[in-house]
Amino acid sequence: MVAKILLAEDEEVLRMLVMDTLEDEGYEIDEACDGQEAIELIKENDYDLILLDYMMPIYTGLEVIQQVRNIPAKKHVKIMMLSAKSQQTDQQRVLEAGADYFLAKPYSPLELVKRVEEILHGEN
């Protein structure tokens, strides 16, 4: 079965790069360009993994995590935050909010694919 991933990223060029990279690996990707669109898609669909940018319009990645973790049917979906805000305090805040993983920007497409595969196949 193909894993379904939601990518919420407001920078279009980065969103397209990540989508192309993950689609080339065979994943089914939905995209959101802001936090509100991400929440709407999460409520309507089942995802194996949610990739969130930290700084997005309307709702930040942190606010999206908090809302997702308050939806009983979505509580256990894996969430990875992608962020240039990579200081230890930022990472701690993200993990305390309910993210499972944190990947600091900039990251290579290969690093992203490796992390996604580890998460989806339980190697992490």
- Terminal-residue CA separation: 20 Å
Residue share in β-strands: 15-25%
Major sheet characteristics: 5 strands, parallel
CATH superfamily: Response regulator
Instruction: Tally the helices.
Output: 5
CATH topology: the name is: Rossmann fold
What's the count of strands? 5
Average pLDDT, to the nearest integer?
Answer: 93
Q: Report the CATH architecture.
A: 3-Layer(aba) Sandwich
Task: Count the domains.
Answer: 1
Shape: globular
Order of helices and strands: EHEHEHEHEH
Identify the strand order in the major beta sheet.
2-1-3-4-5
Helix content: 40-55%
Q: Which consecutive residue ranges, at least 5 long each, have pLDDT under 50?
A: none
CATH class: Alpha Beta
Question: Pairing-aware structural class of the strands and helices?
Answer: alpha/beta
Modified residues (4-aspartylphosphate): 53
Domain Response regulatory: 4-120
Protein name: Response regulator
GO biological process, one term: phosphorelay signal transduction system
